[in-house]
Structure formats: C-alpha cells, structure tokens
Amino acid sequence: MPLHSKCEMMTAIGIVGAGAGSAAAAFVLDEALPDADVTVLEKSGGLCGRAATRRHEGVTYDYGANYVKDDDERVVELLTEQLDTEGLVDIPEPIYTFDEDGTVAPGRDADDRKWTYRQGLTQIAKRLFGRTDATVHRRTRVESLRREAGTWTAVGTDGTEWGPFDVLVMNPPAPQTAALLREADWDSSAREALVAAVEAVEYRSIWTAVLRYEFELDVPYYGLVNPGKDHDVGWISREECKAGHVPDGESLLVVQASGPWSTAHYDDDPAENVAKLADYAADIVGDERLRSPTWSDHQGWRYALPEEGVETGPLDSAQREGLYCLGDWVAGEARVHAALANGLDVGERIVNAQ
C-alpha cells in the first residue's frame, strides 16, 4: 500500500461511526495528514461496527461478522504487514453448505484465508485507531448535522456540538445515514440526490443466537452456509475453530437466521428465538444435544447486510462539499474486507482533495 507524501495543512475531520471502514480511513489520514485533527463519534460503547466481539465466562466470540477474507491485496497487506500480527489467527477448517432440507455437503472457499484475532474481530478497529492520533468519543450519538460557512458541525443528542469540520465522513448504515442527511441543515442541490441514493440501499436484518456447549462437536467444518437462501437459517459457525476463543473440549455455535426469518421474528421473545435456532442447529448439524445449550446469548442486527451498493454519482457530488460516505454499503459487498478496502479508498480521496 503506497504511502502518501506528508501534508502540513491543518484539517479538521469528523467521522460519524467507528466501524471498520472508519478505522481504515483514519489510519490513512493519520499517515498522510499527520497534522489533521480527526474526531470520531461512535454511538455505542464498542468499535468496529458489526465486526463485534463479546467475552463471557472464559469464551470469546465474534457474533456479527465472522472473519475477514483475503480477497483484497491492500487489506491483506494492512493486516499482515502494517498492523501488529500478534494474535492474528487463520481458521483452517472449511465452510460447507446446506440446502433447504438441511442436508450438509462439502462446500466452498476451502483454500481461502479466514482471519480473526485471538481477542476477536474488534481488534481490527482497535489496532487501526490505536495507530492514529484520532480522538474517539464512544456513546456519543449524533442527532443532527449542519453545514455553514464551508464547514460541518455534528450535534449530539445531549446538545453538544462537534466541529466545525472541514471534512465530514459518514459511516452508519445507509438508513441511518439517510435519516441524518435528510434532516440536515444543509442548503445544497447535492442533498436531494444524495438522500435518494442512500435511501435506496436495501438491507437484510439478521437475528443471531450464540450457543455454548460443554462438549466439542466432531465435524470436519468450521461453518455452514445456506447458499440458496431457502432455509430459515443462513449460517452456523463454530467459534472453537478460532484459536483462543473457546476452552478445549467445548463448543460455541453462532447461528444466524435468514433475512426473512429475522424480519418476521425480530421483536419476538428472545428466549423463544434462541430455542428455535438451537433446534434448527440440532437438525442441520445432526446432533440432538445441540437443542440444550449450557448458556446462550443473542443479538439482533436491524441493518446487518446491504443487499447492494449505493449509486456513486451523488456521493461524488457530495464530496465536493466535504461530505464523504463509507462502509460496506458504499462498497456494495457485505464483507469486512470490503468495508476496510472502502475505508482505505475514502481516506485516500480525502487526502487527494486537500
């Protein structure tokens, strides 16, 4: 990944959202614009968006995105050469498939790298932001945006104003970004087309159950995917295949429901959803013991997976006014490596515009 020449211009940059794409953009900006003042506003208490990790009673689990693929050379270089590789682990077991009847068969991506960290996928954003001088404010929800005198201001739900920023970067999922832009105090011919383009990005909701067992499954695969999207479950994976995540002799499954099932049951009783997904896992994997996990966790992702990318023309117009959008919904691929690659691209665009 080529490094840009250093620029001495002081630039104030605001980033809304601390996802993987934001972290990659901040990394590029810090290297190329070392005097820039970068402020990141994140509504949650964590980093890396849906590449999320939890720890509980001696286990570590990635309960949103599952791993990073090696599909982009810049991302491979970023993870294996530019960032600290301590704790970076590859998942050696393959991914199999299952059909609408739950029948499992050898599947795909047997030769691809599938990376995570012993401490979980959130390490990506933590390590990227940790290499920068960016100031990250967690539990800071942006409620409105204002454009005046050629700069941007973000206003929090508590009335705190952040800025003014010469450049504003938007990383929330497209529906949330569209809502902020729609109500923004921004008098521009670019806004209407931008809002329409961002609103047009459709999302798939995902409801996830995490299931722990005091025995280890004897199966040859790490994950199971339903490529035909004709089952109520879309994905099952084994966290014990990730070094450092699960104690020896135990299993921890991440079971992600399909988009239609997730939408239909999103607001149902979580315990009932977990029980249904445990039953599905037992049927698909073929092990009756899976119906009774030792303990469980769950997470609903309202805006989990963008179905397509955004129209780029309106984004280009907004960039001329110092507004940039980034993330997997901009890249058009619901993958961590795509979000990272897009963040690198947007960071470079901002640098080149200075």
Structure description:
- The chain is of the alpha/beta class and 354 residues long.
- It has 2 domains: 162 residues, FAD/NAD(P)-binding domain (3-Layer(bba) Sandwich), CATH 3.50.50.60; 148 residues, Polyamine Oxidase, Chain A, domain 2 (Alpha-Beta Complex), CATH 3.90.660.
- It has 10 helices and 20 strands.
- It has a 7-stranded mixed beta sheet with strand order 8-7-16-17-18-15-19, covered by helices on one side.
- The protein is globular and about 65 Å long.
Mind telling me the CATH superfamily name of the largest domain? FAD/NAD(P)-binding domain
Rg calc: 21 Å
What is the name of the CATH architecture of the largest domain? 3-Layer(bba) Sandwich
For this structure, the CATH topology of the largest domain is: FAD/NAD(P)-binding domain
Helix/strand order = EHEEEEHEEEEHEEEEEHHEEEEHHEHEHH
Overall mean pLDDT stands at 94
